[in-house]
Inverse folding.
């Protein structure tokens, strides 16, 4: 399976998670219908589903049944969707465009957007708690890990640090600290969902997968920073140049575009080296790592 078949793998996984998300999200025919409409608008309105892909790819490396990972993959994507809704709010990044469409608070209103994010976060944990096929101890471990990755010592904490850093001079070490939390924590949690679904993984293999996730999480953010400079709004699905307008510290701003790209490439190489032990079963993880750094959207 050494031939890069990311498109086929991505199509299979996206189909699985889209179906599962559609079933999990309350229908708009159920009250409060406007809130449910906003939730579905934000979750089912496109997106690359990178985090669910990583969950399924980790499962492939560990030879797990993909059905075991449907709910964990949904939980990760629901947390991600909630974070995007809140990030786009006027009190945060104040953005008007997400995935090529009006942001949730523009399509609906600010109050509905806040509530939609809150409800998606709750639904993420419900989906894990009720995940079929997983041992209770594994589900509890997943719930704890996702809570830590999403909270003040993970994604939310990273967002707080990012907001506090606007307009301030940062060094590379502090910027890395922010992004390891803001973006990297949920990337690592995506891989951890697969690890924890296994339940009895060799410690060395667990550490290798976690190192892979840490490396590509940071590489992903660096490439995101690069795209904010080089990308086109029509391709990246959000407003290009927004980081510069908000005076956010980014890797291109601190080290230059060329070095930022080299950093992302080196992190990807490190990630790939970590998962060589999985041989061909690790191919989907390799394809994803290469695609994240080479992406233009």
């Amino acid at each position: 399976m050494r031939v890069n078949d990311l498109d086929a793998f991505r199509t299979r996984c996206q189909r699985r998670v889209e179906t599962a998300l559609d079933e999990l999200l309350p229908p708009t025919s159920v009250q409060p219908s406007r809130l449910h409409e906003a939730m579905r608008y934000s979750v089912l309105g496109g997106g690359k589903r990178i985090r669910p892909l990583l969950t399924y790819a980790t499962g492939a490396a560990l030879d797990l049944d993909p059905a075991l990972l449907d709910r964990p993959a949904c939980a990760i994507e629901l947390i991600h969707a909630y974070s995007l809704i809140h990030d786009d709010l006027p009190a945060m990044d104040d953005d008007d465009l997400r995935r090529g469409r009006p942001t949730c608070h523009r399509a609906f209103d600010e109050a509905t957007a806040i509530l939609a994010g809150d409800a998606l976060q709750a639904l993420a944990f419900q989906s894990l708690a009720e995940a079929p096929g997983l041992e209770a101890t594994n589900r509890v471990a997943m719930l704890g890990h996702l809570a830590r990755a999403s909270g003040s010592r993970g994604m939310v904490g990273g967002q707080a640090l990012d907001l506090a850093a606007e307009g301030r001079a940062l060094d590379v070490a502090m910027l890395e600290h922010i992004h390891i939390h803001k973006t990297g924590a949920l990337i690592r949690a995506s891989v951890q969902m697969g690890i924890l679904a296994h339940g009895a993984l060799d410690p060395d293999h667990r550490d290798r997968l976690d190192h892979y996730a840490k490396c590509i999480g940071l590489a992903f953010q660096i490439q995101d920073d690069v795209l904010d400079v080089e990308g086109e709004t029509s391709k990246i699905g959000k407003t290009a140049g927004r980081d510069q307008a908000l005076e956010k510290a980014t890797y291109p701003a601190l080290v230059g575009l060329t070095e930022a790209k080299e950093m992302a490439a080196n992190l990807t190489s490190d990630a790939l080296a970590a998962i060589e032990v999985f041989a061909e079963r690790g191919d989907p993880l390799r394809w994803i790592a290469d695609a994240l750094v080479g992406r233009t959207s």
The chain has 16 helices and two strands. The chain has one domain: 6-294. The CA atoms of residues 223 and 293 lie 6 Å apart. Residues 6-294 form a domain with the Farnesyl Diphosphate Synthase fold (CATH 1.10.600.10).
